[in-house]
Write a structure and sequence with these properties.
With 272 residues, the chain is α/β, with parallel strands linked by helices. It is built from seven helices and twelve strands. The protein folds into two domains: 126 residues, Nucleotidyltransferase, domain 5 (2-Layer Sandwich); 101 residues, ATPase, nucleotide binding domain (Nucleotidyltransferase, domain 5), CATH 3.30.420.40.
Length: 272
């Protein structure tokens, strides 16, 4: 960074995230039911319903893993996070995405978070964030099952990258007399079976022998995890506090990105 003529270079002590004052960062998990965020300088996880309230009605801008109203999503994020960032703002954002969200989801999400005036937005599959917070060895294939409120995802990670994924628009919010927990377990097991049948390598077999990493609020329900264990015939390894695993994993990846030397070039007030 070049200093102005006649001025002295400005150097700023670089502290560990989350306590580096010149560096603003946000880890963001934009779920269909809940939006969760970790903001630099704050110890707690912000956890609110994914909803905006224009007048007396309610709008849910993210539905079943799809951003259906980008403008409403932006308003929600501005209300939640806009006033929480310290000057000079312009945060580095790590944003989790559904494994099958694709280009359309990432484009809509980036448009929505523009309201926070980020300097950089990095997207990461939610399963990869879950693996990060669980400190998994990603040199080996890993199967992640995310039992969310409105979506159930099964993702195979190989060397940390998504190599196969399935999802169903069914989650814990659907559980009632007509949708018992066994139905979600059956749907998740069917996705695993389909992935195994189509695998022409040993990756799925290796991942199942290793055990399934379990995340999402459904991982806290024994009436759901019990039937799933019976159907998969493999150990399930719930992540601690599975309902917030994705945002905590994103925060861990944000910490790594914050410490990377390449981040210095865009760090406000930093002179390399």
């Amino acid at each position: 960074m070049t200093a102005a003529p006649g001025s002295r270079p400005v150097t700023t002590r670089h502290r560990a995230w989350r306590w580096c004052r010149p560096c603003t960062g946000i880890a963001l998990d934009l779920g269909s039911a809940r939006t969760r965020a970790c903001v630099s300088g704050r110890r707690t996880i912000l956890d609110v319903p994914t909803a905006v309230f224009p007048g007396d009605g309610g709008t849910h801008p993210v539905q079943r893993g799809t951003i259906v109203d980008t403008a409403a999503t932006a308003r929600m994020l501005d209300r939640l996070l806009g006033h929480r960032m310290r000057p000079p703002g312009h945060p580095l954002i790590i944003l989790t995405t559904p494994a099958l969200g694709g280009v359309a989801y990432r484009a809509a999400a980036r448009t929505a978070v523009d309201v926070l005036r980020p300097r950089t937005v990095l997207t990461v599959p939610a399963a990869r964030a879950v693996a990060a917070v669980a400190d998994c060895d990603l040199a080996r294939p890993l199967l992640v099952v995310d039992l969310g409120a409105h979506l159930t995802e099964v993702t195979l990670l190989t060397d940390g990258a998504v190599t196969d994924a399935r999802c169903t628009a069914l989650g814990t919010s659907d559980l009632d007399g007509l949708t018992p927990p066994g139905r979600i377990a059956e749907a998740a097991a069917a996705m695993v079976t389909a992935m195994l049948a189509q695998d022409r390598t040993s990756q799925m077999t290796d991942a199942l022998q290793r055990g399934v990493l379990l995340a999402g609020g459904g991982a806290l329900r024994g009436d759901l995890t019990g039937p799933l264990t019976e159907r998969l015939h493999t150990p399930l390894r719930p992540v601690p506090a599975p309902h917030t695993a994705a945002v905590r994993g994103a925060a861990k990846l944000l910490q790594a990105a914050h410490a990377h030397p390449s981040a210095a070039a865009t760090r406000p007030g930093h002179s390399p």
